[in-house]
Amino acid sequence: MNVAARYGFAVGCVAFIFGNFIACGAQMYRVSMSEDHNAAQVSVESTNPNSPAFGLHSPHGWVKLPIEFKVGNKMDAVQKSGLQAAMKTWEIATGKTLFKFVGVQDGVDGDSFPDLYSSLKDAVNGQYLDSNWKKTGKPDVVLATTIWNNSSQDTAAISTADIRFNVQDYVLGDALTIKGTYVEASGQFKDPVDMQTLALHELGHLLGLSHISSDADAVSIMNPYIYIGEGLTNRHVSIGDIERIQKIYGCEGAVCDADKALEAVLEFSKIDATQTAAH
Ligand SMILES: [Zn+2]
After folding, report:
1. Which of 57, 154, 163, 261 is the most interior residue, by most CB within 10 Å?
2. Could you list the residue range(s) of the whole structural domain that residue 192 is in?
3. Domains identified in the chain, total number
């Protein structure tokens, strides 16, 4: 992302906002990600820079790979493509097959579950949209949240996980083309959020990564905030993210050289997600 150019856009936009907020769409702003996962499941070690488990909430990763996942029945093609591209990015970073799509959850999406944690009770690793976000108990400012179960045999390993995406308060899609939406009934403006960027961060949690402060790694996708708004994307991970994910899953092939992995990740990030094969 060209930060200077984006700021230029945002400033130009602000001047226009007072005249016509809706036509202008969303301006750029930073959204905190601090409530997008369960901090209670994050160990003390993960926040200690001197620990080998720094930045890792589940250092042993998934009990079984690839992670078999389903998507909710309301996810559209562009959202699926963004999600798939984010998964591919983590696979490029490790040189391993981490994910396997096993179907759409017929008739089921985030709204089917009475609260946030009940979707974890089945054996399905689900990627769900919630258009009734309130019942997750998370505030409106939370874009998505990742929940997981650690294995009863190994509490440093993950056995199941779901991601719940907030589509009550945000429009999720390709931020290079989507606009925000004004909901007349509620007078609410739904900001556009790049699905690939958001999924990359949430999948980082799903794979075992915790937040990394910008002091420790300013360009990590696991920084506890992201920029949202029209045209704003961050579709790649940092070299630090690559090193941390390889600590959990190891690596295969040329990407065991983290510089090579970063090159491959950056190359892939230039591809428009909507052009990649959808599931
Ligand atoms: Zn997060």
Report:
1. 163
2. 33-275
3. 1
Alpha helix (H) residue ranges in the chain: 3-17, 21-24, 77-94, 195-207, 239-249, 258-269
Ligand 1 centre to CA of 170 (Å) is 16
Structural domain contains residue 17: no
Residue 103 lies in a domain: yes
Residue 270 has pLDDT above 80, yes or no: yes
Q: Is the pLDDT of residue 176 over 70?
A: yes
> Which pLDDT belongs to residue 273?
61
Tokens read off for 159: 């056995």
Q: Which residue has the tokens 């905030």?
A: 225
Provide the β-strand partners of residue 158.
62, 150
Tell me, in angstroms, the distance from the centre of ligand 1 to residue 199's CA.
Answer: 10
CA of 129 to the centre of ligand 1 (A): 17
Residue 37, CB-side half-sphere exposure with 13 Å CA sphere: 27
Closest by CA to 134, choosing from 162, 166, 171, 172, is: 166
**Is 266 contained in some domain?**
yes
pLDDT single digits (tens) 8-40: 333 333 333 333 233 334 455 678 887 888 767
Please check whether residue 243 is in contact with residue 189, taking contact to mean a CB–CB distance below 8 angstroms: no
Residue 244 belongs to a domain with what CATH number? Answer: 3.40.390.10
Structure-token pair, residue 78 = 């562009």
Q: Is residue 10 part of a domain?
A: no
